[in-house]
Amino acid sequence: MLSGALLVLLLGRAPAAETGPPPAKPHVLEVEVAALDTEALDAGLRARLGPTLEGWTITVTEDEGATETEIPVLVRLRDPGGKTTKRTLVAHGETPPSRSRDLASSIAVILRGLPVTTPHESDGHVDPPVDPPVDPPVDPPVDPPVDPPVDPPVDPPVDPPVETPPPETVEYRWWIGLGPHLSLGGSAPVQPAGGLDLQVGGWLVRDHLQPVGELSWAVSVRDGLSLHALRLGAGLAAGASVGKARALWIGGVVAPRVAWVHIADAARRQVWMSSSVVGALVQWRWPAVVVGLRVGVELNLPPLSATGTDAQIDWGIARFTLGVSVGPILRYRRLRRGPAAGGPKPSPTSDQGREGAVQAATFENPPR
Length: 368
Known about the structure:
The chain is mostly beta strands and 368 residues long.
């Protein structure tokens, strides 16, 4: 009997098996972009989010319009409850690790502002109601007649909430170029004309179209007779980017121009004429600089013939022209949103407003 009592005493003092919440599910990171470093992206997310990252599934795929320093990506964020959120972001940087760290910072800002659902909430599971115990049937008393029940009022149908599409960063690139040009033509001997061009343009419609503007000065001198022309015009270039890095652009350009010509010899006079350009345009693009080459035909209407005391200069209808320009690339970024009609606008102090502030519009030159 003493042994039995001792055994019961020892069992009563034995510590109960420790129980606790199940371990958190680790996060999953799937990167399908060759220009990113998966390890650097994962390390950046862990450093910024810590335990908040547990249970999330993050998938990164490449979007269109990638350059050497900017990689558009589509990010899918799935919380522990299975709710998925999509965002379109741009990873900036010259190397895969730097682009990955930049992307990790943007993902961390978005993930902190998202509500987290649990698997119980995501599945929509509701425990079935428990029926109360049923008493044995009892003969009901005879009640006086009761008026028929009145149907309760029916609430009007409520439209489901409309989801606001995620914001998207849109970038526009423009360029300014300055350089010399040379034109040849006319009767023998060949009568050259040279000068300087100031040009401006921009890439639109996935780099297929370029509106261009130009201010040009040209001069031709022979035996004391000189022609000075000031030209102003605008036109359109059409083409496409070539190569994996999309650094080379090839296309054609048409630019109508009006010209004011000053003729100087023993006497001086001025004339107005049309001096348009039709030709090919080739551009080499770097992150901050563009170099352009234009080859084509200069169309002069009406043709110009200037006669001086000892010389004559002819600018015929068609003259060969060659020009080179070099200048900076300017970038303008803005946040394009698509809120539903009449829907609430995000507050500047909300998570969505802070996210928009991170991607606010800028006008800058990219880092070299």
